[in-house]
Amino acid sequence: MTWGQAFRATGRSAAFFAVAYFVLTALLDLWLVGAVDWAEQAVSTVIVVPIYWAVIAWMARRRAGPGPGGEGR
C-alpha cells in the first residue's frame, strides 16, 4: 500500500492531517521551549513525522479490516 492509498483509506480529509501535524509540532515546540531553532526543528522532524505517518498507516489498516483468512493486513 502506498502512502497515498493509506491516506485515502483512512477516510479522513487532508485538512484533518494538516491540522493534526501542526498540533503535534506545536505541542512539541511547547515542550522544547528554549531549544536552539535548528535543534528544535531536527527533533520535531525526527519525533513527529514518524508518529504522524504511523498513525495514518494504523488508521488505514484498521479501516481496511482483516485480510484473507482472517489475518490482519
Q: Rough shape?
A: elongated
Q: In sequence order, what are the helices and strands, one letter per element?
A: HHH
Number of helical regions: 3
Helix content: over 70%
The poorly predicted ranges are: none
Overall structural class, as computed from helix and strand content, comes to mainly alpha
**Biggest β-sheet, characterized?**
none
Question: In the residues, how many domains can be counted?
Answer: 1
Kindly state the number of beta strands.
0
Beta fraction: under 5%
Q: In angstroms, what separates the terminal alpha carbons? A: 10 Å
Provide an overview of this structure.
The chain crosses the membrane at residues 14-36, 42-60. Keywords: Membrane, Transmembrane, Transmembrane helix. This protein has 73 residues and is mainly α. It has one domain (3-64). The chain contains 3 helices and no strands. α2 crosses α3 (37-64). The longest helix has 28 residues, at 37-64. The radius of gyration is 15 Å and the shape is elongated. 1% of the residues are buried. The mean pLDDT is 73.
Question: What's the structural blueprint in terms of helices and strands?
Answer:
Layout: H1 3-9, H2 14-31, H3 37-64
Entry summary:
The protein has three helices and no strands. With 73 residues, the protein is mainly α.
Keywords:
73 residues, mainly alpha, 0% strand, 73% helix
